[in-house]
Amino acid sequence: MTQFLQLLFEGVSLGATYALVALGFVVIYRASGVINFAQGAMLLLGAYLISWMAVDVGLPFGVAVLAAMGALGAFGAGFHRVALRRVVGQPTFVLVMITIGASIAVSAAVEAVFGDNQRLLGDPWGSSTFHVGAITVTWVKFWGIVVAAVALAVYFSFDRFTRWGLAMRATAGDEEATLSAGVPVGRVHALTWALAGAMATLGGLFLAGFPSAPAHGLGDAALRAFPAVVLGGLSSSVGAVAGGVLIGVVEVMTSGYAPSWLGTNFYAVAPYVVMIAILLVRPYGLLGVKPAERL
Amino acid sequence: MSEPLLSVRDLTLRFGAVTAFAGVSFDVARGELFAVIGPNGAGKSSLFNALSRVYEPCDGAVTFDGRDFLRLRPRQLAGIGIARSFQNLGVFPALTVLENVMVGRHHLMRAGALRGGLGLARAEELRHRHAALEAMEFVGIRSLADAAVQTLPYGLQKRVELARCLAMEPRVMLLDEPVAGMNAAERAEIAELVARVHAERELTLLIVEHDMAMVMKVAERILVLDFGEPIAIGTPAEVQRDERVIRAYLGEELEVAA
pLDDT tens for residues B114-128? Predict the structure, then answer.
C-alpha cells in the first residue's frame, strides 16, 4: 500500500507536468489545426533560460521562472509572427514542417550557446524531501503539482471568462466567422503561441527538476506528453489535462510494478500502449469530438 | 437623395479565363434594403465574397461612406460598421448562444485581458452583456442564452448568427443567402425577421439570395445578375416585368436550327 501511494503521488506529479505540456499542444492545435513539433524545443529553451538566469545571472528563482515564462511567451508570439503568418493559407502540413524546422534550430542553438553538459537548475529545493506518513515527498514533485494546479486554474479562467479567451474558443469553432465579427484572428493565434511558450517553460522547469537536470534529452520529454494529447482528444483542453495525469500515473506505476520480463524500460512504452487501447474504443480521444460533416 | 452609403462601379472578378461577374455597378442608399438575385451560377456568391473582402476583384471600384472599400482588410470591416452572415452558417457550435453573440462585441470592448481577467471591468462587461441579450431578445432567442448552439435546430442557429451581427452595432449588414437550406416555414420567419431588422433598426441591408419569393417580399430595390452580367435593376415590381429577367428565369424557346 505504501508503495502504491508513493507511486501514485509521483505519477500525479509527473502527470501534472505532462498536463501543462499537453495543454501547450492543444491550445495551438485548437486555434489553428497545427501540431507544434517545436513544443519540446521550447520546453528545453525554457529550462535552460531558467537555469541561466537563476545560476549565472543570480536572480531569485521565482523571478527567473517568471522571466523565462515571459521570454518564451514572447518567443512563441514572435515565432508565429515571423515564421507562420507569412504562410497563412498554405496547407497545415507546411506549418507543421516549419515547426519541425524550428525545433531543430532551437535545440541546436541551445546546445551552441550552453554547451552539451548538464547544468544546474538553480532551484531552491534540490533533492530535499519531507514525509507524509510512510510516503517520501520530494519538494520538487510537491511544487510540480501545486504550480501546475495554479497554472491550469489561471488558464481555464482566462479561457472561460475573458474576451480573449472567448476569442480563442470562437477561432477554434469558425475562423472566418470570428474574423468577420471583428476579432483580430492573427493576434489570437499569436496569443496561443505565447501561452504554449509559457506552459512549455513550466513543463521544462519540473521535468528538469531532481533527479533530472537541464540537459539535451529534455526536448524528447515533450514527445512523451504526446500520447496524453492524443488520448485526451487533440482539441480538448480538459482532455489534455486528464490525459496528462493519466499518462504520468501509468508511466510511474509501470516503472514500479511491471514484471522484469517486460524489460527495464517498459515504462516508456506503457503510455503508448494505453493510448492505442483508448483510441481503439474512442477514436477521437477521451473528450475529443468527432468533426461534424455537412452532407 | 443624399450620397449613397455603398457605391459599386464596374466591378469585375475573373478566375483565370472564367469570368465570375463583369461590369457590375449599383448604389445602395443609407437605410435601404437592397437585394442581388440571379439563377444558379449567375455570380451572386462571387459578388458577395468580393464585397466581404474574401475575393480580390480584378477591376472596378467600391466606395463605402466615401472611403475606398477595396483597400480595407477583412478584419477592418467590423470596425467601420459592416457585419456579414454566412450562407452555410457562421456560428461557433461548441459555444453557448450568449457566447456566440458576445463574440460580436469583441471589437467594441476596451478593457485589456488583464483588467478583464481580474474582474476590474465589471461595468463594461455588464454593458456588453446587456447589449448581447438585447440583440438576442430582438431575434427571439433570449431564453436560449445558455444553450450550446450545436444543440439547436438550423433555423434557430441562423437567428444566433443574426443576433451576433446585430450585436456588432453595424451600419450595414451583408446577408449571404439567409434562407438557403430552410423549409417554407423557416424561410417565412427569417424573411419576417429581416424585414423587422430593416424597419426597426434603421440598418442598411444588402442581401444576396436565391429565393425569389423572399426577395420580392422584403427588398426595396433589386439587382438581377445572369451569367455574371447585370441584366436589370429596380423595384421588385419593375424587375418582375422585365423581359430579360423573365427570360433568364424561365428560359426562352430555342429555335431549331434548320
Answer: 565 556 667 888 899
Q: Kindly identify which residue of chain B lies nearest to residue A184, measuring between CA atoms.
A: B75
Do the beta carbons of residue B36 and residue B207 sit within 8 Å? Answer: yes
The answer, for B92 touching chain A at a CB cutoff of 8 Å, is yes
Q: Name, in order, each residue with C-beta under 8 angstroms of B156's C-beta and a sequence gap of 6 or more.
A: B141, B144
pLDDT digits (tens, 9 = 90+) for B73-100: 888 899 999 999 998 899 999 999 999 9
Residue A34: burial class (beta carbons within 10 Å; 0-12, 13-18, 19+): buried
The pLDDT of residue B114 is 57
C-alpha cell at A126: 534540490
- Global pTM value: 0.89
Length of chain B, please? Answer: 258
Pairing verdict, β B229-234 and B82-85: unpaired
CB–CB of B103 and A167 under 8 A? yes
- On chain B, the residues whose CB falls within 8 A of the CB of A158 are 113, 117
Q: State the CB neighbour count (10 A cutoff) for residue A295.
A: 3
Classify B65 in phi/psi space as left (phi over 0), alpha (psi -120 to 50) or beta.
left
Residue in this structure with the C-alpha cell 441584366, named with its chain if needed: B231
Contacts of A179 in chain B (CB under 8 A): 74-75
